[in-house]
Design brief:
about 240 residues; alpha/beta; Cobalt-precorrin-4 Transmethylase, domain 1; Methyltransferase, Cobalt-precorrin-4 Transmethylase, Domain 2; 2 domains; six-stranded mixed sheet; five-stranded parallel sheet; 8 helices
Length: about 240
């Protein structure tokens, strides 16, 4: 059996009881970065063989992992934080296991995507998730411009090093559209800010530029299409 196990996105107490039981019972754990997974396992006193499975080595590692599974071993697949396959390595192993007739079971839990949406205050009836935006500014801007007319809520991930550039481009493209940016969700310095896209580049300067970010942009409304007005109605707000 291959278990796809969600792990905390920050606060180690967010792991589920079933996830802990699974990690204790499997024969080995397939992880994105062994150093990150060891922090979690040591916190809960779990010792298991670890197999690194990061994006650049996925295809190379598949045969040996499949051999383990075909020999009747149970493996847990985790990523550094959150749910595997949500902008993290996983789908190739899941696909290969299913093709080989090996059962795959989800052990659901934390996800930065659902956590951010739950506190964004933006519509969630229709959502498009794009993960990390392209690194090159030109390609990133073209993608954002192509999404400008979409009516559903848009969700992106971004890193410390590119957050200011990305927010500047989002502000340029989406202007007075409502946006929520979540930084370091569930961690000590968690910060959630809501306001206009055009203002967002000024929210994260200095020390609070560090961390992992989820960016949520409200879709284009019918009112906006007809009047060109934003739908926020008041100044930006901050929660932390």
């Amino acid at each position: 059996m291959l278990y796809v196990v969600a792990t905390p996105i920050g606060h180690l107490g967010d792991i589920t009881l079933r996830a802990l039981e699974t990690l204790k019972e499997v024969d080995g754990i397939v992880c994105e970065d062994t150093r990150e997974t060891l922090k979690l396992l040591r916190h809960y006193g779990i010792e298991k063989p670890l197999f690194s499975f990061f994006r650049e080595k996925e295809k190379e590692r598949l045969p040996s992992l499949l051999r383990w599974l075909k020999e009747g071993k149970d493996l847990a697949l985790v990523c550094d934080r959150g749910t595997p396959a949500i902008s993290d390595p996983a789908y190739l192993l899941v696909r290969a296991a299913r093709a080989a007739g090996i059962p795959v079971s989800a052990v659901p839990g934390p996800s930065a995507l659902t956590a951010a949406l739950s506190v964004s205050g933006l519509p969630t009836d229709a959502v498009s998730f794009y993960g990390f935006l392209p690194r090159k500014a030109g390609k990133k801007k073209r993608l954002l411009e192509n999404l400008q007319e979409r009516e559903e809520t848009l969700v992106f991930l971004e890193s410390t090093h590119r957050i200011l550039e990305t927010l500047a481009l989002i502000g340029e493209v989406f202007k007075n559209r409502e946006i929520t940016v979540c930084r370091e969700l569930t961690k000590k310095f968690e910060e959630i800010r809501t306001g206009l896209a055009s203002e967002s580049v000024h929210w994260f300067q200095g020390e609070n530029r560090r961390g992992e970010f989820v960016i949520i942009v409200r879709g284009r409304s019918r009112k906006e299409k007809t009047s060109g007005q934003n739908c926020l109605g008041e100044g930006g707000k901050t929660w932390s």
